[in-house]
Amino acid sequence: MKKIFAVILCAIIGAMSLSACGGNKQSAAQDSTGLTEAEEKAPEDYTGNLVVYSSHDEEPLNAGINMFMEKYPNVKVEVVAAGTGELCDRIASEADSPAADVIWGGGADSLAAYKDYFAPYVCANDEFIDSAYKDPDGRWIGESPLPMVIICNKKLIEGDGLEIPQSWEDLTNPEWKGKIAYCLPSESGSAYTQLCTMLFAHGGMDEGWEFIRKFCDNLDGKILDASDKCHEMVVSGDFYVGLTFEKAAVQYRDNPDICFVYPKDGTSAVPDGVALVKGAPNEENAKLFIDFVTSGECQTEQSRSWGRRPVRPDVEVDEALAPLSELVLVNYDFDSAAKDKDAIIRKFNNIIAE
Q: Above 60 in pLDDT, residue 31?
């Protein structure tokens, strides 16, 4: 079972300034002198608390939080880490008395399904973020496009005389039965995105279920309860292949036994998102954090150190990642993926239980 854990992080270090903004189309309101509120307020003048819910992997998560604390040394940060589905359910259950200020991570389709629990906010970096990567109502902001991939243990595959799969369709072939690592979509936002991606790649929400039945049959009853296990258990040799996100797979680029494939029958590039929790107890610091994770400095560091694809076009993409223009991308329907999430997960669970 996925654990929720919290860790209080705090630091007293001097840092540079970062612009903040209000929830409108201007980056910040100006006073009569022409200076913005953010320009008048030094980083060390921001104080108080910030509670971040996040489904990001531990190392890039900690790196981003530490960068924020260095920049704003007098803000005390608490991180609650768990799967996207678990965190969104928790935000919904806490709606009458919110504990979180911001959620950082999780596919935008999953955040869109819970958008009633998020408050509108247009961040300071709005001009750098394409409209395809943000909610038209400002309820979530994409911060890293996230193609879904098949991660492969080359040593096991080649040792059995098999070929590296090149598509989702390949995974329905008999030789992969019981060899595929996949997580329950009800537990993981990325697994839910993978499910919808396969549906959209094979006929959509009506015809695609025939493909999902064949895929589920090849899982042979082996289904995981946490998305990080999918890539970890392929690397450890427990599974031959796994469904995972690009940002996880690229971390094994120096491992000669591991490779990853962008499925030729269509992948998706749904962004990881960040969102302001409605009624956030520390709203000013939450907005400050959203501005930070969409800033050039944070996006650059996350790309260089952790292979996370930046949402900003002015930030260089890790050379190990294929340009989005070279990928076969499905027509990912955000509206149906968000609106019908409960029904889609219920149908998947019924297929697994058959």
A: no
Q: Is the pLDDT of residue 182 over 70?
A: yes
- Quick one: 134 and 164 in the same domain? no
DSSP string, 50-87: EEEEE-S-HHHHHHHHHHHHHHSTTEEEEEEE--HHHH
Residues 137, 13 share a domain = yes
Specify the residue for token string 């991660």.
151
Nearest partner of 151 among 229, 212, 234, 251, judged by Cα: 234
Contact 322, 262 (CB under 8 A): yes
Mean pLDDT of 71-78: 98
SS (H, E, C) 110-154: HHHHCHHHEECCCCCCHHHCCHHHECCCCCCEEEEECCEEEEEEH
| Among 18-27, 39-48, 158-167, 329-338, the least confident range | 18-27
Same structural domain, 235 and 158: yes
Same domain for 222 and 337, yes or no, is yes
Range of the domain at 52: 5-146+271-321
What integer pLDDT is reported at residue 318 of this predicted model?
Answer: 86
Band the pLDDT of 22: cuts 50, 70, 90: very low
Q: What is the pTM of this model?
A: 0.76
Q: Count of domains in the chain?
A: 2
SS3 4: coil
CA distance 129 to 310: 10
Name the residue type at position 181: A
Report the C-alpha gap between 114 and 252 in whole angstroms: 33
> Of 113-127, 225-239, 317-331, which gets the smallest average pLDDT?
317-331
Strands 258-261 and 180-181: unpaired
- On the question of pLDDT at 1 being above 70, the answer is no
Output the CA–CA distances (angstroms, integers) from residue 31 to 16, 39, 148, 298, in the order listed.
Answer: 22, 11, 45, 28
- CATH number, residue 184: 3.40.190.10
SS3 222: coil
